[in-house]
């Protein structure tokens, strides 16, 4: 009321500008998307990102690259390895999110008091993982630098997750990064544990 200006300047911006600012990981853009828009694609986006990861891992398996006959696409649709890769990707994502929630609850229990706080943070984390969609172009335009591209995509997703935590819970930069790192450690730890027990090859 005192400045006679909108609190959220992105209300007046074109969606393309908002998307560009979100890609640049600007806190104000994340705040606008999370609190002032009615985006309800969190679950669908999560499933699609998991499918992208599973597809990338499935392509990297030697068995799936042995037969390149285009008439054999139906067999590829029935590949059990793809579903196994989807399960592994889901397990990793769940471990990562669990690690973040445990860290934040342990460091600042007052931040996650209610169920709505958990749901808002979960939606923010799922929505901020949109960078995983870049896995598809990285696979399609395969070149010598593909492993480097995949590493950059992973770093970008972690930065986006950190920014989403920061905006949702109104924190400084340190605690979100700590939560993301612990989530990453737990994710890798769970995968290593399953590899040792023989559940994951």
Please, could you describe this protein's structure?
It is a single chain. The chain is mostly helical and 201 residues long. The protein has one domain (46-197). It has 9 helices and no strands. The protein has helices at residues 15-23, 27-35, 42-60, 73-77, 80-107, 115-127, 135-140, 146-169, 174-197. Helix 3 (42-60) crosses helix 5, helix 3 (42-60) packs across helix 6 (115-127) and helix 8 crosses helix 9 (174-197). It is globular and about 60 Å long. The termini are far apart. The model has no long low-confidence stretch (mean pLDDT 81).
List keywords for this structure.
201 residues, transmembrane helix, membrane
Compile the SSE list and pairings:
Blueprint: H1 15-23, H2 27-35, H3 42-60, H4 73-77, H5 80-107, H6 115-127, H7 135-140, H8 146-169, H9 174-197
Low-confidence spans: none
CA-based gyration radius: 19 Å
Number of domains: 1
Mean pLDDT metric: 81
Nutshell version of this structure?
The protein is mainly α. It contains nine helices and no strands.
């Amino acid at each position: 009321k005192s400045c006679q200006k909108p609190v959220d300047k992105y209300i007046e911006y074109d969606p393309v500008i908002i998307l560009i600012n979100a890609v640049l990981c600007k806190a104000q853009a994340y705040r606008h998307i999370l609190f002032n828009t009615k985006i309800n694609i969190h679950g669908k986006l999560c499933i699609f990102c998991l499918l992208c990861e599973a597809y990338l891992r499935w392509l990297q398996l030697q068995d799936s690259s042995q037969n390149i006959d285009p008439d054999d696409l139906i067999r590829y649709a029935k590949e059990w390895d793809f579903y196994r890769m989807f399960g592994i990707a889901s397990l990793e994502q769940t471990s990562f999110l669990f690690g973040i929630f445990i860290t934040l609850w342990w460091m600042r229990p007052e931040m996650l008091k209610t169920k709505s706080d958990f749901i808002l943070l979960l939606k923010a984390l799922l929505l901020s993982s949109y960078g995983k969609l870049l896995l598809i172009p990285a696979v399609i335009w395969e070149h010598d630098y593909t492993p480097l591209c995949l590493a950059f995509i992973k770093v970008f997703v972690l930065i986006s997750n950190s920014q989403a935590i920061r905006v949702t819970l109104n924190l400084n930069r340190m605690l979100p990064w700590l939560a993301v790192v612990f989530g990453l450690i737990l994710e890798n730890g769970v995968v290593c544990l399953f590899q040792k027990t023989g559940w994951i090859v």
